[in-house]
Each structure stands twice: as structure tokens, then as C-alpha cells.
């Protein structure tokens, strides 16, 4: 059974290839069958390993890929308990997305292959045994994003795709830089050996810090954190709801779980965890506010999911390992549900814009219910699943008595704001839509939504009381942490939720009576958030700069030859000037000496003008002759 | 007569046979050409089979006197590096011969120059005599000149002469450097071994000057700025299959850099920083030119030049890993660039303006699949050989020169972005325009599929080539130390 985990991603990749060459009519069914098969295999391996008691032990296997005397890179896996649980979660997400897509309106055939490929790549990224292999799976994800988002469109669409690809590829290459750095500074790219390095004794702190910074950059870009969220938003909008759900659940999860997998390295590197905490907290806050002001339901859902992932990363940076990982699992499932609902609403309204969704609560009460359950679960409201992980994060942070407590509390409030605002804005408006026939979500799309909504009620409780899960998400090298009983922190927690989730609900009711001072603070903030806190301006500036640079480059090529011509003319003219100057000064001897030089320069210039390459060849031959002469002499 | 000698002789015989083929008979010319190109590839495959991969010494060698008084001999042989570069070159040549277009109504002339080019290419790789190497190096530029001029005739001779002049001028510098080494060799011989010893005995400063001359020749062939201006125009004007084979010849620049660094370790060490800076800047510049290119052939040419710059950096970096990666990457990227040039030509035959092509994924699935694979290889994306080569080159470069490696990575990133956007533009889009277009014909596919398979095979199982390349590169390293 050990091989199953290694081949699981390749089952998906092969499935994607087969789906790509199938008839369009068969693709829908085979995509669902492939994802079901992958889930079955993952579950089979998981439960068999659990029965044998070997689930927690790191599973390391693979074969040599590049085999050089001083440099060896294996194509292998490193799967510990966390990876095992994560594989099951991602395979479930893949299956639910395939099921949802089966009921979606017909899309291009390539979308099915893209989703299957993305699932496989996300699975591979969770079990990759070394950073190079991880890079390969990230590149596969990029390919899948490209396949899902590339389609016929105008120039604006082309630029958008360029942004998506630039974002995703930048993340991949940041990871490659981290891999190359690890290879040169730490001597290996294998995770097992990197962990050994930390466990053997004092690890090289500076090298580890640089490595962790590079990994952090890669993770932030790949999981669409601020200021790199633009590509994630665009990909979620263009890929369609099923792909968007996969992207924000499996994609963000597999990227954000990398610091969790590499936690011993982050813990050993001085300052890396603090940097992760600070950057992730800032990103969570900014993404949350951006989500609250996004005009498009896909963007809002993607940003809300990114904010939740950032909250988990912030908690990880604060040293709260198990609750942070638990929150990541919760986010993955809830983000998928959020996007499923967004897809259903968008299909019903005929547009993903919130402004077009007025009055959908009258025609889609069941979807509204799912959406509200999901939003409240993301807010962390009891007894939904988000509550179990979020409250645990707050309780453990409170016990740590550090500055992380108020920061994470504020971030949790902002994340609640984003989730609640998405839910509230999607169903605002009291006027029923003037549509001739109400849109009915197909049962195939309802099924995964029902499953996830039910899971949102019970999974938090079930998983927090499941000993196996607790063991899996807490590796032996992470020390047990104290936590305060929930009661002392319940008041701040409740206040944070009320402030976060209550504000959008209050505004939804019209916001009557809101003090003008508060309005004056909120309005510019909303304006800033709508522009991505200036990131849109920065991106536009970069786009403009690149376009101007490309234009300048074309000019540069012609200017270089013109400059050569001018330089040659000047060089030819210089001896003539010298002759004139010498004659004017009455220095006949000097003028006589300069005259042949001027003639030579003139001839050379004429040759250059007639045939510049010949002039270059003559010069090179002259240089060669001089070199030979110099050596023989 | 050893195999290393035969691989030079067979293309010459192929060229000679073209003169005997009946004038105007395309079938006879192509049949004869295909037979000789296949024979050349078979010889390379046989050499790979007979080659002892764990022995780093030169194998299947021959040594015949030529100009005894000056110590010049016809010394040839294979090492692990030249073997696979030659194999890839022979594969590209066979594919170019099989490709059904490019003769421009003059098939005999076309195949004649193509085989002479292949002979010069093989000569460069198997030469174990530095004079012979220099002679083949200069001779290489002549067929390229005539192949470039085949399509444009005599109207625009200046365009075709660009490559010739740069090559001849920098080759003159290289020959001067070889002559200088010869005068210092105690044995008064141009044998590679004697030249190696002479080079190692020089002072650091002298080594730097001589190494710079070698690198000028390598840079003109690769080509790196400021010797790059001929590339875009030449590849656009020449027949596609001719452009593919002489574009592949750019990898001889990497080979020469590798050898020169072994001959002149002090020079390689002394000039490493400026050379690597030039390579990194060239990679970025060529990648930017590729992104701003408006024609597919030009974009492929500049992408290939950016790739070559990264590999050249690996070749002179002084790391076994980087050098092995440079050789592996050269084999794969050369094959991928050749395939893309042929695909570009196939597209040009179907669309008056290839830029207007859209929706080819639906109407031309085979073309689309091949395009994606080859573009991925040139963009160094896994699981292609281009990725394996660039990764190893950057991995070797990174410990000593992290900023240069970062610049190389940025260039690769730009090319990857370009490849993805080109795929979107061609393969997706308005289906109505694309539906009318026939997919590539079996003969076209037969010319391109082997190249695509080769690049993917090298990516999935790089050990196949690395087992041969690494001992040879390690031996160079041993000589260096």
C-alpha cells in the first residue's frame, strides 16, 4: 500500500490526460469517476495505515531522478500524519468539486481535465518528499490554472490571464529559489534530511531564516495573500465555480500547509516564525477588508478564503500549531462550500456581481441557508466547525500571554467581517428579481453543498474529539501547549465576533443611526479596500512600466545601431578636427602627423557606413593579428 | 576506421551524393538525404551502445596524421558530452530532412549545404585536435551562409552575411588563441592533450586573454549580445528546417565554453564574474526581446538565445552539476527549439498571417499537443528535459553566484510566461477561424514527434544521458584541478 500515496497524484494526471482526449460528452462522467477513484484509493490507504498504526510514522519512499556524484535529487514522498489527513481532505474536495461540476452548465471540455490535473497536483504537493518534487507539482497546478482560465476573449482578458500566470509562476520560481538555496546552504532539498538537520543539534540559524523567508514568499504568492491576491481573484472569476472551489479549497490549502509541513524548520530559524506571524496577520486583515468590499462574489469568496488561510498561518507563526492546522482543514472545506454557493448564485443572477443579486433570497432559500451556515462557520460562531478551531487558537494564544493574543483577536474579527459581509451582501435587497423563470440549482450541485453544510455542523465537534485526528495534526516534535479554559476568553471572543460579523449585518439593515464619525472612518477605508489598498495602483503602474519597457526595448535595438553610427562618425571626425585645430594653431608638424590619421578614419568610416559587419570583421582580424604578434613576440 | 571518424565522413558523403542526384528530382534528393541522415543517427546510436559510460576517457577514437610538420592530425573521438550532443544533432538533422518543406525549389542545393553543416557540426564535437576544431568551427559558418541565402537569393546578401562575418571574425580570434597555445606546447602539436598541458602552464593573465578569445567565438555562436543581431533575422529568413538545424548548432557555443574552461582553468576562474554577468544580462535581454517579439520564429529564436545564455553560464561556472546540466539542457532545448521552428513553419503554410491563428486546440489537436510539449521544454517546465538541464545548471551556479542564478531564473520565468501566453493565443480563441484548418500532415508529424519525445524522455529519465555526461564532465574537472 506504500506505493498508493506515491502514485495517487499520477492517477489524477493520467486521468486528466485521458479526459482531455475523450469525447466531450464523456468527460463530465469520467472526471467524476476519476476523482471518486482517487478518493477511494486515498481512503483505502488511510484506513489501512490507521489500522496498522503506521499513519503517524513518516513514510519516505521514491526513486532517484537526478543522480550526480555530489548532487542527488529523488522523486519521492515524505508523508507524515499531517500529510495523510491532508490527502484525505484534498481528495474529498476534488470529489465534491467533480460532483458539483457534473451539474454545472456545460463548459469547455478542457475544464474537466484542468480540474482533475489540479487535484492531482495539490495531492502531490502535500506528499512531495523534496522541494524540487514540490516545485514540479506546483508547476502542474499552474498548468491546470492556465488550462482552466485560458479561453477566447478580448485584450483585457489576455492581460488578466497574464496576471494569473505571472502570479502563479512567480510563486513557483520563488519555491525553486528556496530549493536552490537549501541545496547550496543546507546541502539538501529532501524534507527528511532538512528535519534531521534541525533535530541533530543547533541548526544554522541564518541559513534557515533565509530559506524560511523564501518559502514564505512562495507560500504567500501561491495562496493569494496580500499583495499577491490579484491573481487568485482573477483565477477564481475566470475558471468557473467548480474550479474556483477547487482553487480556494485544495489550492490554498496545499500552499498554506507548506509552513505547517516545514514547521520544525520555522521553529529552528530565528525570527522566521515571528515574520510569518506578522506578515500573515497583516495579510489576513487586508484580505478580509478587501473581501468585504469586493464587488464580485467569486473575488469576495476567494479573498475571504485567503484571509482565513492567513489567519491560520498567523497562528502558526505565533506557535499555535495544532489549532492552526485544524483551522486550515476547516477553511478548506468551508471555502469550497462558499464557492459552491457563489457559483449557484452567480448562475441564478446571470452575473457574479453582487449588484445583480438583489432579491435572490426569495428564489433560492436553500442556497441562502447553505451560504449563511458557511459564512457563520467561517466567522467562528458556535456550534459550527469554525468555532472549534478559532476558539482553540484564541484560547491557546491567550495562555501564551504575548502580543499575539490581541492581534489574532483583531484579525479574527476582521475575518468574521469578511465572511459575514459576503453572506449578507449576496442576499440583500427586498425586491424579488424580475426574472421570468426562477433558476433551480440542479440536484447534482446541491449534493456536495448539502454534504458540506452538514459537515459544517458536525465536523468541528467530531474532529476536535477524535483522538486519531489530534495525533495526526500534532507531530511528535511539536511540544504540547497550554491553553486557557475557554470561559475567560469567551467575552473577548464574543466581542470580536460581534464586532466583525455584526457590522455587515448592521449595515445590511440600512445602517440607520450609525454615528457620523464612524461613517467618516469607514468610508475612506472602504474606498482603500476596494482598490486593494493601493495594490491595484501598483499593479497598473507595473503593467504600464512593463509595456513602456517593451516599447523602449524595441527602440533600444535601433538606437544601438544609430549610436554606433554616431560614434563612428565622431571617431572619424576627431582626427579631422585635430588637423583643423593644429593648422589654426600654426602647428604644421602636428597637422601633418594628424592628416594621415584623418584620412584613415575617413576611409574606415566609409567602410563602416557601407558594410558595418565587414568593418567589425576587419577590426576583429586586426585584433587577432595583434594578439598573435603579442604572443609570438 | 572508427565511428568518430565515420560520423564526419557520412554527412560529407551525403552531400556528395546530392551532386549526383538528378536535377529537379525532389524524390531522389530527399530519399538520398533521408538515407544518409538515418545512417548518421544509426551511427550515433551505435556509438552510444558501444561507449563505456563509466569510462571518462575518449573512446572510439582515431588518430591519422594530416600535416605532420606542424603536428596537425585528424584526431577524433567521443566523450560522454560530445556523444549525446551529436546524437541530438543527428536526430534534429534527420527530422529536418524528413520535414517536407524548406527546399524552396532547390532540393539538391538545400540538402548539399545541410549535410555539409552536419559534417561541420559533427567535426566540432568529435575533434581531438585543436586545429581541426578551429577548422570545423570556421567551416560551420559557410553552409549556414548559403542556407540563409537560399530563400532570399541575391537580393539581400547583407542579411545572410551577418552570421558569416561574426563567426569568421570571432573564429579568427579563436584560431589566434589556439596558435598561441600551440607555440607554448612543448610537443609542438595541436593535439588536445598537448594544448591542455600548454594552457595549464600559462600565467593567470595570459590564460584570461586566451580564454576571452575562445569565449568570443562561443558567444558569437550561442549567440550572446553584442553578437546577437543576426539571429532573429536569420532564423526568420532561412527555410524553417535549415533554420532549425543551424539554430541547433548554437549549442556548440556551450560545448566550446566547456572545453575552453577545461583548457584554461585560470582564465575561466579569472573571467568568471564578468562572463557570468554577461550571460545573466544576455539571458534577461534575450528573454525581454522574446516577450516583445511579434513573430513566432523570432520569439523562438530569442527564447533559445536566453536559454543558451543560462546554459553558457552553467558551462563556465566551474561546477560539475552546472556543466552536466548545461550539456543536458543544450541537447533538449536545441531539439525543442528546432521542433518549434518546424511547427511555426507548418503554421505559416496554413495561415497567411500566423498571428491570426486561433482555436487550434479544436481544429489541430496534434499540432497543439506538440506545440505545448515543445514550448514547455524551451520554457524549462517539468517534466521536460529543458527543465532538468536548467535546474541542474542553476543548482550548480547558485552556491557561488546566487544573483546570477536569480537573473537566469527570472529569464526562464519570462520565457515560461511567453510560452503560456503564446499557447493561449494560438490554441484557444475564435473556433470558427480555426475549424477550417487541417491538422499537421503525417510527414510533418513524423519530423516533429521524435524531437518532442526526446525532450520529454530526457526530462522524465535524465539518467539516460547523465550517466554518460557526468563522468566526462568530472574528468574535465579532474584535469582542471
Describe the structure.
The complex is a heterodimer of chains A (about 625) and B (about 475). The longest helix of chain A has about 50 residues, at about 535-585. Chain A has 2 domains: about 1-430 and about 440-535, no CATH class; about 560-630, no CATH class. Chain A has helices spanning about 1-20, 25-50, 80-100, 110-125, 130-150, 155-185, 190-200, 205-220, 230-240, 240-260, 265-270, 270-295, 295-315, 320-350, 360-365, 365-380, 385-400, 405-425, 445-465, 465-470, 485-510, 515-530, 535-585, 590-610, 610-630, and strands at about 60-70, 70-80. Chain A is mainly alpha-helical and about 625 residues long. Chain B folds into 2 domains: about 1-270, no CATH class; about 270-480, no CATH class. A two-stranded antiparallel sheet of chain B has the order 1-2. In chain B, helix 1 (about 5-20) packs antiparallel against helix 4 (about 105-125), helix 2 (about 25-50) packs parallel to helix 4 and helix 9 (about 230-235) packs across helix 14 (about 295-315). Chain B is globular. Chain B starts with a helix and ends with a helix. The mean pLDDT of chain B is about 85. At the A-B interface, strand 1, helix 5, helix 6, helix 23 and helix 25 of A face helix 6, helix 13, helix 15, helix 18 and helix 19 of B.
Can you count the beta strands of chain B?
2
Number of helices of chain B: 22
* Main pleated-sheet profile of chain A: 2 strands, antiparallel
The biggest sheet of chain B, with number of strands, parallel, antiparallel or mixed sense and barrel status, is: 2 strands, antiparallel
- Beta-strand percentage of chain B? under 5%
Low-confidence stretches of chain A: none
- Give the CA-CA distance, first to last residue of chain B: 34 Å
Amino acid at each position: 500500500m506504500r506505493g498508493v500515496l506515491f502514485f495517487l497524484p499520477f492517477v489524477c494526471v493520467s486521468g486528466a490526460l485521458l479526459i482531455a482526449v475523450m469525447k466531450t460528452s464523456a468527460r463530465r462522467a469520467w472526471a467524476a469517476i476519476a476523482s471518486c477513484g482517487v478518493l477511494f484509493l486515498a481512503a483505502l490507504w488511510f484506513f489501512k495505515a490507521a489500522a496498522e498504526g503506521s499513519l503517524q510514522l513518516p513514510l519516505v519512499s521514491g526513486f532517484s531522478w537526478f543522480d550526480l556524484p555530489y548532487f542527488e535529487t529523488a522523486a519521492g514522498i515524505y508523508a507524515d500524519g499531517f500529510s495523510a489527513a491532508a490527502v484525505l481532505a484534498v481528495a474529498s474536495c476534488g470529489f465534491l468539486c467533480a460532483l458539483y461540476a457534473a451539474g454545472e452548465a456545460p463548459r469547455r471540455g478542457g475544464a474537466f481535465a484542468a480540474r482533475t490535473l489540479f487535484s492531482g497536483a495539490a495531492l502531490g504537493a502535500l506528499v512531495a518528499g523534496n522541494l524540487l518534487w514540490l516545485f514540479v507539482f506546483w508547476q502542474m497546478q499552474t498548468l491546470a490554472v492556465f488550462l482552466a482560465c485560458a479561453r477566447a476573449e478580448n485584450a483585457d482578458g489576455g492581460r488578466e490571464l497574464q496576471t494569473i500566470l505571472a502570479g502563479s509562476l512567480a510563486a513557483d520560481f520563488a519555491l525553486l529559489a528556496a530549493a536552490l538555496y537549501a541545496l547550496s546552504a543546507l546541502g539538501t532539498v529532501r524534507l527528511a534530511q532538512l528535519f534531521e538537520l534541525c533535530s541533530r543539534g543547533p541548526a544554522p540559524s541564518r541559513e534557515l531564516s533565509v530559506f524560511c523567508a523564501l518559502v514564505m514568499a512562495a507560500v504567500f504568492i501561491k495562496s493569494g495573500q496580500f499583495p499577491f491576491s490579484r491573481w487568485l481573484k482573477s483565477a477564481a472569476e475566470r475558471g468557473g465555480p467548480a474550479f474556483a472551489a477547487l482553487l480556494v479549497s485544495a489550492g490554498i490549502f496545499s500552499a498554506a500547509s507548506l509552513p505547517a509541513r516545514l514547521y520544525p524548520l520555522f521553529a529552528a530559524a530565528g525570527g522566521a516564525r515571528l515574520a510569518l506571524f506578522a506578515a500573515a496577520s497583516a495579510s489576513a486583515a487586508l484580505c478580509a477588508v478587501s473581501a468585504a468590499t469586493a464587488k464580485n462574489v467569486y473575488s469576495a469568496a476567494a479573498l475571504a478564503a485567503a484571509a482565513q488561510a492567513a489567519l491560520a498561518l498567523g497562528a502558526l507563526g505565533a506557535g499555535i500549531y495544532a489549532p492552526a492546522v485544524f483551522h486550515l482543514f476547516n477553511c478548506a472545506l468551508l471555502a469550497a462550500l462558499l464557492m459552491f454557493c457563489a457559483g449557484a448564485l452567480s448562475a441564478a443572477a446571470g452575473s457574479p456581481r453582487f449588484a445583480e443579486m438583489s432579491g435572490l433570497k426569495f428564489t433560492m432559500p436553500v442556497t441562502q441557508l447553505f451560504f449563511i451556515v458557511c459564512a457563520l462557520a467561517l466567522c467562528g460562531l458556535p456550534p459550527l466547525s469554525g468555532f472549534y478551531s478559532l476558539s482553540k487558537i484564541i484560547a491557546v494564544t491567550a495562555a501564551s500571554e504575548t502580543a499575539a493574543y490581541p492581534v489574532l483577536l483583531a484579525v479574527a474579527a476582521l475575518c468574521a467581517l469578511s465572511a459575514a459581509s459576503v453572506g449578507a451582501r449576496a442576499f440583500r435587497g427586498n425586491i424579488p428579481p424580475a426574472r421570468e423563470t426562477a433558476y433551480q440549482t440542479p440536484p447534482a450541485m446541491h449534493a456536495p453543498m448539502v454534504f458540506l453544510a452538514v459537515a459544517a455542523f458536525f465536523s468541528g465537534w467530531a474532529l476536535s474529539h477524535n483522538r486519531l485526528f489530534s495525533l495526526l495534526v500534532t507531530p511528535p516534535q511539536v511540544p504540547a501547549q497550554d491553553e486557557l479554559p475557554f470561559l475567560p476568553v469567551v467575552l473577548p471572543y464574543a466581542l470580536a465576533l460581534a464586532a466583525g460579523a455584526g457590522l455587515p449585518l448592521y449595515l445590511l439593515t440600512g445602517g440607520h443611526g450609525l454615528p457620523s464619525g464612524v461613517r467618516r472612518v469607514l468610508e475612506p477605508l472602504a474606498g482603500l479596500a476596494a482598490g486593494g489598498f493601493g495594490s491595484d495602483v501598483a499593479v497598473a503602474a507595473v503593467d504600464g512600466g512593463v509595456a513602456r519597457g517593451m516599447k523602449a526595448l524595441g527602440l533600444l535595438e535601433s538606437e544601438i545601431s544609430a549610436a554606433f553610427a554616431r560614434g563612428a562618425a565622431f571617431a572619424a571626425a576627431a582626427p579631422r578636427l585635430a588637423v583643423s585645430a593644429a593648422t589654426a594653431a600654426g602647428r604644421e608638424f602636428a597637422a601633418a602627423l594628424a592628416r594621415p590619421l584623418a584620412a584613415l578614419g575617413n576611409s574606415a568610416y566609409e567602410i563602416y557606413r557601407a558594410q558595418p559587419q565587414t568593418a567589425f570583421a576587419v577590426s576583429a582580424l586586426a585584433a587577432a593579428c595583434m594578439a598573435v604578434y603579442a604572443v609570438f613576440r | 576506421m572508427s565511428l568518430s571518424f565515420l560520423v564526419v565522413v557520412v554527412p560529407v558523403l551525403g552531400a556528395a551524393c546530392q551532386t549526383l542526384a538528378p536535377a529537379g528530382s525532389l524524390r531522389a534528393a530527399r530519399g538520398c538525404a533521408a538515407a544518409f541522415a538515418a545512417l548518421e543517427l544509426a551511427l550515433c546510436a551505435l556509438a552510444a551502445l558501444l561507449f563505456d559510460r563509466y569510462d571518462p576517457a575518449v573512446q572510439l577514437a582515431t588518430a591519422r596524421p594530416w600535416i605532420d610538420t606542424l603536428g596537425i592530425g585528424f584526431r577524433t573521438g567521443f566523450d560522454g558530452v560530445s556523444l549525446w550532443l551529436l546524437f541530438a544533432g543527428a536526430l534534429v538533422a534527420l527530422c529536418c530532412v524528413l520535414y517536407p518543406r524548406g527546399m524552396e525549389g532547390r532540393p539538391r542545393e538545400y540538402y548539399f549545404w545541410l549535410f555539409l553543416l552536419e559534417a561541420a557540426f559533427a567535426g566540432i564535437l568529435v575533434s581531438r585536435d585543436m586545429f581541426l576544431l578551429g577548422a570545423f568551427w570556421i567551416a560551420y559558418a559557410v553552409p549556414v551562409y548559403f542556407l540563409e541565402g537560399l530563400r532570399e537569393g541575391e537580393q539581400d546578401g547583407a542579411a545572410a552575411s551577418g552570421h558569416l562575418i561574426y563567426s569568421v571574425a570571432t573564429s579568427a580570434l579563436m584560431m589566434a588563441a589556439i596558435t598561441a597555445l600551440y607555440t607554448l606546447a612543448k610537443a609542438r602539436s595541436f593535439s588536445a592533450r598537448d594544448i591542455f598541458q600548454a594552457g595549464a602552464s600559462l600565467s593567470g593573465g595570459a590564460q584570461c586573454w586566451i580564454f576571452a578569445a575562445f569565449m568570443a567565438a562561443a558567444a558569437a555562436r550561442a549567440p550572446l549580445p553584442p553578437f546577437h543581431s543576426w539571429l532573429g533575422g536569420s532564423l526568420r529568413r532561412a527555410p524553417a528546417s535549415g533554420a532549425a538545424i543551424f539554430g541547433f548548432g548554437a549549442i556548440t557555443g556551450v560545448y566550446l565554453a566547456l572545453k575552453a574552461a577545461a583548457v584554461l582553468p585560470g582564465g575561466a576562474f579569472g573571467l568568471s564574474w564578468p562572463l557570468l554577468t554577461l550571460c545573466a544580462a544576455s539571458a534577461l535581454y534575450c528573454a525581454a526581446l522574446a516577450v516583445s517579439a511579434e513573430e513566432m520564429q523570432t520569439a523562438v529564436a530569442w527564447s533559445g538565445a536566453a536559454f543558451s545564455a543560462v546554459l553558457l553560464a552553467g558551462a563556465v561556472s566551474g561546477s560539475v552539476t552546472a556543466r552536466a546540466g548545461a550539456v543536458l539542457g543544450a541537447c533538449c532545448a536545441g531539439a525543442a527549439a528546432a521542433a518549434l521552428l518546424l511547427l511555426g513553419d507548418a503554421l505559416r503554410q496554413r495561415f497567411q498571417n500566423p498571428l491570426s491563428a486561433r482555436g487550434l486546440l479544436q481544429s489541430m489537436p496534434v499540432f497543439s499537443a506538440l506545440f505545448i510539449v515543445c514550448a514547455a521544454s524551451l520554457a524549462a517546465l517539468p517534466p521536460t528535459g529543458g527543465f532538468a538541464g536548467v535546474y541542474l545548471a542553476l543548482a550548480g551556479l547558485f552556491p557561488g553566484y546566487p544573483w546570477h542564478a536569480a537573473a537566469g531564473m527570472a529569464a526562464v520565468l519570462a520565457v515560461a510566461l511567453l510560452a503560456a501566453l503564446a499557447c493561449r493565443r494560438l490554441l484557444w480563441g475564435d473556433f470558427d477561424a480555426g475549424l477550417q484548418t487541417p491538422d499537421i500532415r503525417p510527414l510533418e508529424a513524423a519530423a516533429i514527434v521524435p524531437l518532442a519525445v526526446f525532450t520529454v524522455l530526457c526530462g522524465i529519465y535524465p539518467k539516460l544521458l547523465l550517466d554518460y555526461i557526468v563522468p566526462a564532465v568530472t574528468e574535465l574537472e579532474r584535469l582542471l584541478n
